[in-house]
Amino acid sequence: MSCGCKTSGDSSHSCGTKSASGCSSVDTCGNSYKLSVFDWLSDVNPSGSKSSEYVEVRFKNERKLYYRNVNNLPLHIGSIIAVESSPGHDIGVVSLSGELVKIQMKKKNVHIDSLQKVYRLANQKDIETWQDLRNKENAIKVDARKIAYGLKLEMKITDVEYQGDGSKVTFYYTADNRIDFRILIKEYASVFRTKIDMKQIGFRQESAKVGGIGSCGRELCCSTWLTDFRSVNTNAARYQQLSINPQKLAGQCGKLKCCLNYELDTYLDVLKDFPSSSTVLNTEKGRAFCIKIDVFKKKMWFAYVENSMAWYDIDIYDVQKMIAINKKGEKSQALEDLKVVENKMVTSDLIQENSVDRFEKKNRKPRPNNNNRDKNPKQQENRTARPQSDNKTPRQADSRNRTNEQKPADKSAAPKAQSRDNQPAGNRNPRQGDNRNRQSEQKSAENKTVAPKVQTTDLPSSENKTPKKPFKKPKKKFPPKNEGNA
After folding, report:
1. What is the 3-state secondary structure (H, E, C) of the chain?
2. Considering the chain, what is the average pLDDT of its residues?
3. Residue 163: pLDDT above 60?
4. What is the tens place of the pLDDT at every residue in 174-195?
């Protein structure tokens, strides 16, 4: 079902919107405005005429009035019309027409005799004048604030509205106390050269005009859809078990939030089954008083007068039985016997949203280091199968004579004269290979026996070991100059 609104250019062309929110254009369609009403009777016309007897017209600043269509003009939602005003005429946009207007008038107790008339459809000159006056309103608001500040009046000019023909200016202001603005009106009349009208609004209406984002993260209700502002009391917060904190309960207007009244009726219906929070129970172990209540779980927390630190949650139906027993003059059971024992539900965190290290790789293999190398049996076997000289650095090879190093008993079996090719590349010292004992190299070449890579356990003492002199780099001898000439 379409929204029933039509563009102002062609009365027979529908906007094509299929939702109840209406058209998306604020300038041409009234259903996008927060004061608009969905015309669900747009296709119903019992009289058969296209014109409606009454229309609803909206203006600036959430102002909406009803007018009588005395000339039977073909008006529809979005039509810009000129209506009767005092003085002159005003320009507005039709927000509702048809049979639904009578229902809205009955709902708001609007008398038919007090309705003003619709003059005509607005022409191009009326629309241009109306738009020019709208563009001046912001500058006039700034000037009006300066004048009020110069007169030291405790008031705030929140908005300015020009009449469609420019014959009147309405100033909306907020103030905590009564303001005597007789001098202010004279100043405004002399500066702006038009009729002045002053209207006081509340702080909630001011917040609706300014707009903003609430603590819920959404746009303010007063600036989007809320039209009537009901008074909010602190009892609404107490009934909902909310802490009386002005910083949390107050909105941008400085008053209590309007949303405190949204669920108040539901809480009041549930609290009818609860005993009074000032109930005192007379039990076998002493008197107990109520500390708090839980509306959703229908429980009440009690504590003994002698020991107020221990709380016991009891179902409200058990509390009502205990109250009935106390009325008979008897003592009820102890609170420990009536405490509700809940079975804790075992839950599993499948997505691990409560785990801090859920993004770390838990199955990663540790890298081998010097500490873990001895723990691996395969690496330990390879280490024992290697010759003793493989695990030595060049510095350790040079300092072998200084320590009590053990030598194998069989000289032919020990890898004493190992060639440079068989020695590991990481542990080979170039200086050490060039200065080895030539006799050991000759013996190894004659025997041509491969030394085993297994260490022996029979090691003699190091008494017969002769110390070796430290290695010194030989000096390079240059031939005399005369030899070259010969």
Report:
1. CCCCCECCCCCCCECCCCCCCCCCCCCCCHHHCCCCCCCCCCCCCCCCCCCCCEEEEECCCCCEEEEECCCCCCCCCCCEEEEECCCCEEEEEEEEECCHHHHHHHHCCCCCCCCEEEEEECCHHHHHHHHHHHHHHHHHHHHHHHHHHHCCCCCEEEEEEECCCCCEEEEEEECCCCCCCHHHHHHHHHHHCCEEEEEECCHHHHHHHHCCECCCCCECCCCCCCCCCCCCCCHHHHHCCCCCCHHHHECCCCCECHHHHCCHHHHHHHHHHCCCCCCEEEECCEEEEEEEEECCCCEEEEEECCCCCCCEEEEHHHHHHHHHHHHCCCCECCCCCCCCCCCCCCCCCCCCCCCCCCCCCCCCCCCCCHHHHCCCHHHHHHHHHCCHHHHCCHHHHHCCCCCCCCCCCCCCCCCCCCCCCCCCCCCCCHHHHHCCCHHHHHHHHHHCCCCCCCCCCCCCCCCCCCCCCCCCCCCCCCCCHHHHHC
2. 75
3. yes
4. 998 888 888 999 999 999 999 9
